[in-house]
Amino acid sequence: MKEGPLKTVGTIALRNLARHRVKTVITTIAVAVSVALYIAADAWLLGMNLDSRRNIVSYEIGAAKIQSDAYFAKKDELPMYESFVGWEKIADALETAGYDSAPRFVFSGTLYSRTGTAPILFDAVDPEQETALLRYPDFVESGRFPEAGRAELALGTVAADKLRVGIPRRPTTEEYEKDVYGAATDAGEAGFIAGLYDERDGLMALRDDAGAAELDRLWGILSRSGRMDVRISTVIDMVAAPETVRRDRFEEDLLPSLDAEGRALALGSYERDPVLDEYYLTTDDPATLAALLRAMTVADYSGAIRHVNQLIDATVVGIVNSPNPKTNGNVGFIPLDALQGEAGLMLDGAVTELLIRSSGASDTALPGKAERPESIRAALDSALAASGETLPEGLSVRGWEAYAEDYLAASAGDNVSTRVMIVFLFILSFIGIANTMLMAVLERTKEIGMMRALGMTDGQLLLSYSIEAGMIGFLGSMAGVALGCLINIPMVEYGVDFSSMSKEMGGDFGYRVAALFRSAWNPATIILTAAAATLLSALMALPPTIRALRLPVTESLRFE
Amino acid sequence: MKRTIQTIIMLAALTASAAAQSGPSAAELLARVDGNEFYSTIVYKGRMIIEYQGKRFVKKMAFWGKGNDDTFVEFVNPEDRGTKYLKKGGRLYVYSPDSEQVMLISGHLLKESMMGSDMSYEDSIENEKLSARYVPTLSGSEPLNGRAAWVLDLAAKAKTESYPRRRLWIDKETGDVLRYELYALSGARLKEYNLIRAETIGERRFPVESEMRDLLRRDSRTVFIMDSLELDAPIDDSVFSMRNLER
Fold this sequence. Notes:
The complex is a heterodimer.
Chain A (H helix, E strand, L loop, with lengths): L2 H17 L1 H41 L2 E5 H5 L13 H10 L2 E14 L4 E9 L1 H7 L6 E4 L8 E5 H7 L9 H8 L6 H10 E4 L2 E4 L5 H13 L4 E11 L4 E3 H11 L2 H10 E4 L4 E4 L4 H13 L6 E16 L10 E5 L17 E6 L14 H14 L8 E5 L5 H39 L1 H9 L4 H36 L2 E2 L1 H6 L11 E2 L5 H18 L1 H9 L2 H6 L2
Helix pairs in contact in A: 1-16, 2-14, 2-16, 2-18, 4-13, 11-12, 14-18, 14-19, 16-18, 16-19
Chain B lengths: L1 H21 L3 H12 L3 E12 L2 E12 L3 E6 L8 E5 L2 E6 L4 E5 L15 H4 L5 H4 E11 L2 E10 L8 E7 L5 E7 L5 E13 L2 E11 L5 E12 L10 H5 L1
Antiparallel strand pairs in B: 1-2, 1-13, 2-3, 3-4, 4-5, 5-6, 7-8, 8-9, 9-10, 10-11, 11-12, 12-13
């Protein structure tokens, strides 16, 4: 009994769609464009985020890090005095538990080349362990990764360009003649170099088809000319209790900054000299001094932190250009063991962090359950306990997210702002539908009155117009889904090469993607967007129809 | 017997003559340097002339210092007017009139160039007795710019010293430090200072015009001139206050 009127209502809705073809087509296109844009933008954001997260884990951090809590609290200042020793036992235990680990000592400094200077963040690494755990050593675009025991440096491509080290790909004519061609020591080398470069658009350009052997030979020639020789200027942060402290500074600055225990330690370790009016250190007990220093550094008392000037000669042996821009910027990688003695940073085996990744973890997968900090900690504790050891107090395992908070926050902000823009576009297209339906209902007010007079109920009329609008939304959604998927197919398969733009922006624009922006399929978003567009379109018909139904039938029939 | 006495007298005379010719010990020379250049307080108006890769910048400043803990510097040249530095309790703060904000300069930033000069922040506010921090060795004497000078090598007593090694050229006559060189832990030479002019203030000789070169910077030198100088005069503690920095 109910099928008859419902079928009639459906037929009326479909006929109305056909009767107002132009309006239907225009509104359908508006919905389709909105849906397609939302699907494409969502896939692009998802792809960028997935790639960024994978690249953070695979190229930058690993799944987790072990650092001292004191270092983590001040990690942005790179407090090298909060490093730790004895990491080898922890690394062994991690290996037993099924994890790879790589030690690092992170410090900052200025790098001087023959032609310029640049502030650089240096990662002192164990080349073998670093290569096993992270992927960027596989992306040394020219030269090679540093070898253990040598003061060798691999530089990010941005820093290398700025400092004019490495093999220049697009040198100016002047740079080419002076630094590249000028590096040849005989006619044979000069001819070899001349054969590697062409002139393009007023610049010299390294031939795209230059082979690895040719690049190695060119590297050797340029290296011999001194182009790869650099000097690292840095300071070694050390902590030492000051021998003397002026009375007012001791009483007004140091003591108030310490907690009760620290104050007792300071008062017990220093005595006041009444003649010089200063406090002088009286203890030389290593344990007391260590506790005093700990109290001073916790209180951030800068008088206990000393900075020793250091200048280290090094040779650049490779240029890193990986898919993660963080490894390609003002970054340098140097073997950890080359910095141990007085010619280095006097590390005495200390590291600032130990990177961790599950042995055999896939580069395409984000860290799973076994790579959560709590899982690593539990496995590490049991492996250490088996050899009668424990993780030293003050050291903690933290997941990669704790070190990528800036990226995660920026990415969340980007997600919200992009989605808000798309939602606005969505709203605009639905205002279009609302307008179309409003006009349609107004134009058909007389018709509505006639249908009501013929016996159609208000509910049937509401349903008719909702189906009409819903059908516009549905057709638009289907077209939008098709269009969005068509956009997504090449974006997922091939991506877009933004390397030029990325380079213009200094190689780092927040996302950890260096050149190729790829989208990712998100079936849930595709289905939900289509369903939401259809439903919202149907709902858009309700307000004007309800308004028209409020008129008495007689007035509707007279409506012009 | 007479010959023996003559020999003893001759030996004694020779020893005395040799002692007179060998001059002061390394420790005495360093104590003399400290006596000249270490102050309890200092107030001056000065200029910093920075020559860097063909460009010349002149910075004018007023400076107040107390021991090695408290320093206040205010730049008064038009480009930097209102930029102030305060060192207090081992911390160095800078006030920028553009941002109207106080920033803490700490850690590695202390080694950065101060106002683009060849001096680091730390160099510019250092005032600690060298004799307390270094073990001196007299490594000889040589003429420098027409002046006879002792050459003194200093090795840091503690491994936490900012410059683990220094070399000083000290004027034999006046005790002025004519030149010094600062070395990194690796032994590389980092900076070179040359005295241009020293004045006698009270009973001490004090450098009032000098040149510093950061040897890592190409074509760069900074000439430092003190136009008016007052040493060891009392300075009110309120000068070294955050309030003064932000005023």
